[in-house]
Amino acid sequence: MSSPTIGVVVGADRLSAGLVDDGRVVVRDRVATPVREVWRTLAALVERVLAATPENAQRPDRIGVSCSGPIDYRSGAASPAGIPAWNGFALGPRLEELCGLPTQIDSSAGAVLNAQLDNDRGAAAQAAESGMLLVLLDAGVDGATVVGGRRLRGHHGNAGAIGHVTVDPDGLACPCGARGCLYPYVSAPALEAEINRPLQRATPATIERAGIMFGRAISDLAAMVDVGRVAVGGGVTTTFGSGFLDAARRELAARAPSAGTEVVPFDPAVPSIVAAAAVADTAE
Q1: Which residues form the domain of 179?
Q2: Which CATH number characterizes residue 22's domain?
Q3: What pTM was computed for the model?
């Protein structure tokens, strides 16, 4: 049996950390992501989790991190779009220094994708047969890709991240500084800021537009990588439901009629803390 692991989840809306032992969450804590002092808040959170480790429990020996991208899994740097102050922030090295434990980071979608392949036989079989793009639409927009049963990381670990694919050159401004990226059309904070109301009160027109823009983004990737399935999850997907998915399917079919790519919702196979902790075992 392996030693316990600290799992850390960094998102634009919340920070979570937990002690995971053999796939079971022993200790868990979380806080809202602050506008300022994000690192100080995260460090205090991780220290609380370490301090709460039961006296009779084995001490953790490594840390796995799931962070909204872009990330650099080799250096441990993170530049999450929803945390502007973190531009190339040395997240992995800072956690190693704080805790004295080896640390590995991955993108949010990458961590979830790995967990799906490890814990969902159906997803693993589908990915091995025809490839899959997994996308999370929540406070951030993240994606990860598997082809031939193997994860495509790319140079930094962001292969499949579609948040900044251009879907309308003259479209909405994006926090990255560009215009017309997918991000402002399908991320929860950007949508709520634009419509000035909670996602649950979005109009059918807003939901359909989000689906159309998502369909445009995935049509490009479907054509380039030739995946058979796009699995999409996260709070935006759950809230917008079938209206969003149907619009995405129509747009994808119109733009890539020969691809035959299906768009399906998915539920995570394991809690996000468990998926993050498992990242510690993916170091190359």
Answers
A1: 122-265
A2: 3.30.420.40
A3: 0.90
Q: Over 90: is that where the pLDDT of 109 sits? A: yes
Q: For residue 115, is it within any domain?
A: no
Shared domain for 88 and 146, answered yes or no, is no
> Is 95 found in the same domain as 230?
no
Query: Which amino acid appears at position 225 of this protein?
Result: V
pLDDT in tens, 136-178: 999 889 999 998 888 888 888 888 889 999 999 999 998 888 9
Q: Are 85 and 203 contained in the same domain?
A: no
Provide the domain count of the chain: 2
The pLDDT tens digits of the residues spanning 242-263 come to 999 999 999 999 998 777 899 9
